[in-house]
């Protein structure tokens, strides 16, 4: 028996040789795969679940027999801390088992598409001009392109010509062509790059791609600097309405953030923003409009009409982006005032349009968009879930950063938690907040209505009850980290909004929650949450956990697909055309539905069986 | 007999009722047709020649019998001051009979083409958005356009969307569409306008057109403000080379001049620059490049390579022009570094490409371009004629303005002259300078080599000879207006350059000057000159005068044709492709040819018969 086995963790694609005497958890840690392990490998928390796809492993331990169902064991699910490789292995890591050491908000599925970018690069050799051959620069290049590469080009971007002086004496040149337009000139052999951006209300995720290979060369996340003008889109729109010059300021903040992103991403791979010939930006309709300097006031007023829905190709310079001379920005289509191109991108990446049966897809964010595909009929709603799950408006809430409690559970009146980077706790971020509410409800600390009852960790402060997660003593005298009664109310509004959207879609389709065959959860926050917590509080319908999949930043993945592939752009346009949009406020019995969704736990369906299963 | 007749002066299109007892000269003056009349209607100068096309007139007087040939009288030519209408009339005014009271440099042939502009306007009615119909602004408009007008539009200019807020509540809208792009939005019924510009080295001529009717609504001329950076293109290019920031400055000077022109032209017809959806600008290659902020240094260095030759469509905003939201500027193709889009426009307007036989066309300016069409084979050269004929570098030279001597002749040692606006003489402008040189040569004051000899009006001043046109006494003590020996040398260089171009073309075609069947003279200066003076000094070949035609600002007319008609643009591109360019410096025996062209009088051809005719 060799002392090492080769272990391949999928879908991350991280693989390497690991000592035979290391558990899969230790192997994962060695390879940088951040599995969740609340109990530190004791086999008690049950969170390091993985699925062995091929190869031989040690038999299940007593802990595993207890924490995994017979069906799970049969399907190859194991606890990584209890399992040892007996041969080379291929292991699948479900998203819910991944911790989140790098909160760059850029993790997403690999983008698998044959690159067919709109902009392509061609190298041409050039003869120097002479009195016998005084052809103009542009004609010299375009004729060489035609003769040497067989590429016909009708037009030239004016900025290419303006910048051409620097390349006049070159003997060879890389010519970037897009749709019959010569749109950039570079030294021969220069790699053509593309930039895909998910411009979120709170966060911006950027990806730098090699347009020829389709490979993602670098990715990076940053906060949306518009946050200083309001945490949600309505606040920002209201600001622009009150003071139109602020729209201009917000636009330039976003644009400068994207320019910075382009600089940092290209610097990572020793390239320059001038190599970026195309960008695809997706965002909700308000972010889309603010970026393009389109009017936004009307987005906040019924009937919430966008300035434009169709896909747009805009010169990067007309937006203020400093990329290649004649670079374009492609904007995927919007669906409605509150269902934007990011939703289309998510649907594109998750291939929801191709799904069979009844499938639900959510992109959880400051605004949550939900789409139900009922055997081909796609319908979407937008829910104003707000930034509570991003830590805003929560007493000790914080963004996902070092020291944030990101996972917790209540065990015998003790709070077991995990913080980002394992640092001493300083606050609680979205996934921790969600866990906290689920645990409080599960242990009867709050009831269905959200009222906080008695518990050894519940106390009265400033006229309201609060549950102590980390006490003053545990923090060596620093203020305690708590969840207050008001926090619970805030979270009920957020989860109620999301669930109302889901129920409105089911209602419109004449379906019940249990009919849903698959739930796709997209969005940075959505990929970090413990789905069972979301189910416990009733944010998501009570379905068997295997029906859920967390796909990370699918909007970003969709942007990358559109960047690489013209046919994916057409598919996105087809999606935007096919999706029916429901304005939540116009749904019959909206008020009653929303009220019932505010309750914690599964909502009051006839089929209480599902609900019992969840709570058991 | 009625006491009034209706008289129609063509091709100016000025018409009206005139008293029966008024001569045609008086009728012309009443209608604002500025006929030349050196003798004040005495019937002695023979300059107010017109041609009666239809209607009855008084019989020829003795003066007319003397000053007009039998053939001219037979063809209907008359002296306007001697002729009285006996019925309604249609009268043709040859360009050489027109004085120039308004030196706007915009006079040119009428533009006769069926308007088929690229940008067209459509009115659409719009339903207001509602919760039941929350379509985006752009989709609402584009669907209405499709349904109500059957026009399919794929893309929208981003600036249209940015400015659309102001029109959101309109029930009807005028949509401007160009090549499948929605490129401007205006109140319903707004007239779509076009701007044609001849951007000369010295002067700018602008024309405002109604794109639907094709009519010229207003025209206006102004000086090119770049003149402060040098009177000729080489000086300006050298300045940009020495100090690149000056290129930027020159560009903005030209752009701001065009913006001003657009403002003034639209104000004349109670319109706004935002109604201008398309502009066509023609100019020489250097003016073209400076306007577009293209590199120009290489234009002044062999092999004189332009940055681009092909026709360009550029967004007006990318040049800095403030027109309609998504307006375009079309640039006609250049031919070479010194034969630009203005030459192409001239060839387009004069229809030289369609001419039979051997036809010569010249656009006289600071740079003079000459094209010879030899039975379909067009060849062009560029001659650095310089600004002498625009009054620069001439001791008492001035631009065509009030008080400038514009016509003169030497009669019995007296100088008879005509000034602009009939004001007291203050200097001498191009056409007057040309007349002066011709008269001095004709009367033997200067010999073939240009040397000034003895004459009662020749005197010595500051070490050189000068011919006194208007003496100190005649000017009540102000300095005399003279032509100096140095002026004669300067003019010899200018006329020599032009004639060298003509001879080089004839030489390349294996033809002689007398083979030329027609000579088309374009350009503002070209339309004011007395052709016989130009022939006398040998600037133009000695051909019968009826072979010459002066067509005014043909480059401006070509710009207007291209503005109105897509097929005229294609024709311009075809012209640019067909024209063969000869670089004068590469012509065999260039130096010898140039030297022989410096002589005054017809150059030394074998066929001296033609020469004798001219001098007789």
Write up this protein.
The structure is a homodimer of 616-residue chains. By secondary structure, chain A is α/β, with parallel strands linked by helices. Among the domains of chain A are: 4-97, Roll (Ubiquitin-like (UB roll)), CATH 3.10.20; 119-187, Roll (Ubiquitin-like (UB roll)). Chain A is 30% helix and 25% strand. In chain A, the strands form 6 sheets. Chain A has a 6-stranded mixed sheet, sandwiched between helices. Chain A has a 6-stranded mixed sheet with strand order 26-25-16-17-18-27, with helices on both faces. A 5-stranded mixed sheet of chain A has the order 2-1-5-3-4. The first copy, chain A, is globular and about 95 Å long. Chains A and B meet through helix 4, strand 7, helix 5, strand 14 and helix 9 of A and helix 4, strand 7, helix 5, strand 14 and helix 9 of B.
Task: Give me a quick take on this structure.
Two copies of one chain form a homodimer. With 616 residues, chain A is of the alpha/beta class. Helices cover 30% and strands 25% of the residues of chain A.
Descriptive keywords:
18 helices; Ubiquitin-like (UB roll); 6-stranded mixed sheet; homodimer; disordered C terminus; alpha/beta; 616 residues
Assembly type? homodimer
CATH class of one domain in chain A: Alpha Beta
The fold-level CATH name of one domain in chain A is Ubiquitin-like (UB roll)
Largest interface, chains and sizes: A-B, 49 and 49 residues
